[in-house]
Amino acid sequence: MRAALIQLNTGNDIVAETMAVCSLIREAAGAGAGFVSTPETTHLMEMNREAVLKKAFYQDDDPGLKAFCALAAELGIWLHIGSLITKVADDRLANRAYVITPKGKIAATYDKLHLFDVTLPNGEAYRESRLYQPGSSAVVVKTPFGTLGVTICYDLRFPYLYRALADMGADIMLVPAAFTVKTGEAHWHTLLRARAIETGSYVLAAAQTGKHKTGRSTYGHSLAISPWGGVVADAGTEPGITLVDLDLAKVAEARQTVPSLTHTRVFDVKVIDVS
């Protein structure tokens, strides 16, 4: 399977952003991609609470989601929309990923499990839990070309999630993101490579990049990581398309060479206090 990672600098106009994303998806399919993955918050990057609540749609009403489903059917591709800001109540949102079949049907959704609540040393503050409802279930999607483990951005910092996905059969981990520049420079490549090595899986991470209309800056560097932990492709910092050919025989090879998924032990933790 040839996969494509779409790197975006998303703005705050859903209609305009949907058109731009659809153009890139169409270009990726024209280059032979049968699976296309987009970043977190694909068609709306909006930091203001009142504005995002006003602009977001319930899932059944989202014109962008309808356009993506129609395009997947037209092109006959598997489409992973890394996430959309999806309304779940009048004052509550979900950061929700969508896996769409070549017939344009939504095969699965996943709501981001781990919410990013932090104040960075430079003063930037993020409080996703004030507005977003966390998910409650991990999601694995079995497709004809591989089994997808669906995650979003901050989930990357929780290795137990990826181990659980691998134990359930996932051999391609999806990590769409809008990483900050500071944390991206420090941790992005290392964490993605670690998740690949730990699970013997491909890791595909489509990313947001550059300075957005809201003033926020994201790190870019959409990455494809091999099951052995090597960087197969790095998109750098410009919006665009990155193509990668997946060979799942490499998953089997990595897991046979280092069969750590079969060596799980149940154990107690003893705390010895000598303070």
Automatic annotation (TrEMBL):
Q: Which PROSITE patterns does this chain map to?
A: CN_HYDROLASE, UPF0012
Which GO MF terms are attached to this record?
hydrolase activity
Q: Does the keyword Hydrolase apply?
A: yes
Key word Hydrolase present: yes
Residues in CN hydrolase domain copies: 1-248
Which InterPro entries does the protein's record reference? C-N_Hydrolase (IPR003010), C-N_Hydrolase_sf (IPR036526), Nit1/2_C-N_Hydrolase (IPR045254), UPF0012_CS (IPR001110)
PANTHER family to which the protein is assigned, alphabetical: DEAMINATED GLUTATHIONE AMIDASE, NITRILASE-RELATED
Per the record, the similarity remark reads: Belongs to the carbon-nitrogen hydrolase superfamily. NIT1/NIT2 family.
Protein name, please? Carbon-nitrogen hydrolase family protein
